[in-house]
Write the structure tokens for this entry.
Amino acid sequence: MVGPEGGTALGRLLTHRWPEVAATAGPLRPQLDAVLTGGPASPSLVRELAPMLGLHVADLFVVAGLDLPQDLTPASTKPWHVGTVLESAARLAPQSLRRLHEFVRSLPEHPPAWPPEQRYSYPLWPGEMMLRLLQNRNIPPYSPKVLYLIGDGPMVSSSTVAMLGPGRTKLTPQYVTAFATVLGFPADDLAAVAGVAAATDPRLHRNHAELARLAWDARRLTGDQVSEVLDLARGLR
């Protein structure tokens, strides 16, 4: 993906993190140099690079513009999804949130159907990338309430957020910070990926870090399991 400020999203991220990456690159250095000059990344490189950057492998596949392999694919559930869980969880006291998170972690994992139902409609520009990173957590691309409640995102309609995909809604610093917070993605890293600065002094949810971890841990739950989590969340309020 070539986007703002030139280069690829992964290349901009590598440039931003280069001092620490270069120190541990070892035999990966030639492949990383190729990415820095605009070349594509291989799936094997992404799998090795993600732990070096402290990022989820599935997220780095999205940043690199690669399709997710079967072992990294999130679930896709209806009508409830992880965004619905986060809306309920954001209203819980810290102790109740931890209990909900423990329950999520206790649930057995059922690999999602393959091939996935999800199909993407727009080129992988920065706004579309933000939405795909949300979808990596089984959060649909029309979730303004989650962005607002957790990451101080703008108060807008669902359609406004969805229009980040085709670029009809401008990706602003407020959006970048909101997405980074919900995703648990370092804000300066996501700003480098998007080529758009993060917001300064956002009013983040007091439990934003726990909520981001909850979203990740819930990304492969089945529809029935999501319903169980929602039932518990309602009981804990």
About this structure: The two ends are 43 Å apart (CA to CA).
